Automatic annotation (TrEMBL):
Protein name stated in the entry: Uncharacterized protein
């Protein structure tokens, strides 16, 4: 897209913009691939210098502007015959650029991102389809980062879900497939080499364990909810506050000869909760 921006002093900046997407994290930028200030090309050694459109705060308000980084800024200052020494500068955008950046650019960028994601997913699934049951898959289990798969298709749906499920149920991989342990000062990493056929069996076992864990957690939560409901019902029927829970907390009164308080959470007759403190002298 082409835009023409004019400053209060009458300087005219003409730019050609292009949407740029980071294929790793899908970050989006509106980059300037051609710029002309007052009839002078802004470039260095015949190459376009770093410029992009972004939102900045000016006089306490967000505005859309063209940012010129170090080399571009040097060229601009040279064209303007300015002796100022700054690392970067901004040129306020015109209304057309502002409208495009705020309303059209995000939508167009999302279309590109979705296309890239589909292409990436298709490529990953194609790589995944090549894996045979006898193929050895290298797995690393890091004490901090968790499970990671060392394979061309490591980010495909199967391996992504595999890592999530094993982490969720704290699954321990069979020691017989362990090939290396890297003991660090603050963390460790265990390497496993497992046939893909066995890996699929492990995945199914881990999913079953996760279902059991989730069912147990739900049953425990249902029990807690039922108990809490009964306590609130008793408070309503008796008209008296009922204890829901208690914890120990640091005393909040410096004038009391006490280090810990018992903090009670009470169910009130009107369905609300209140807290009360009791000192432990």
């Amino acid at each position: 897209m082409k835009f023409e921006c004019k400053s209060k002093k009458g300087n005219v900046l003409k730019i050609d913009t292009e949407i740029s997407i980071d294929e790793y994290n899908y970050g989006k930028e509106l980059r300037v691939n051609k710029a002309n200030l007052d009839g002078n090309e802004i470039q260095k050694d015949g190459q376009v210098v770093a410029m992009k459109v972004e939102k900045v705060i000016a006089n306490g308000k967000p505005v859309v502007a063209v940012r010129a980084d170090f080399n571009a800024c040097k060229q601009i200052l040279k064209i303007l015959k300015s002796r100022r020494k700054i690392d970067h500068c901004y040129f306020k955008g015109c209304k057309e650029l502002e409208d495009y950046y705020n309303n059209i650019f995000p939508k167009e960028a999302e279309k590109i991102i979705e296309k890239l994601k589909r292409e990436k997913e298709t490529k990953l699934e194609a790589e995944f389809a090549k894996i045979q049951d006898i193929d050895i898959i290298e797995i690393k289990d890091h004490s901090y980062y968790g499970i990671s798969v060392c394979n061309e298709a490591s980010h495909c749906k199967f391996f992504t879900e595999f890592a999530k499920v094993l982490k969720a149920c704290k699954y321990t991989l069979p020691q017989e497939y362990q090939t290396d342990v890297d003991w660090g000062d603050y963390s460790d990493e265990v390497t496993y080499k497992i046939p893909f056929g066995k890996l699929k069996e492990i995945f199914e076992d881990a999913k079953s364990k996760l279902v059991e864990i989730q069912a147990k957690k739900k049953a425990e939560q249902d029990t807690r909810d039922a108990k809490e409901k009964a306590i609130f019902q008793k408070a309503k029927e008796t008209g008296e506050p009922q204890e829901l829970s208690r914890i120990l907390a640091e005393c909040n009164d410096p004038d009391e000869d006490c280090s810990l308080d018992i903090v009670y959470t009470m169910a009130m007759p009107d369905g609300t909760t209140q807290q009360k403190r009791q000192h432990t002298w």
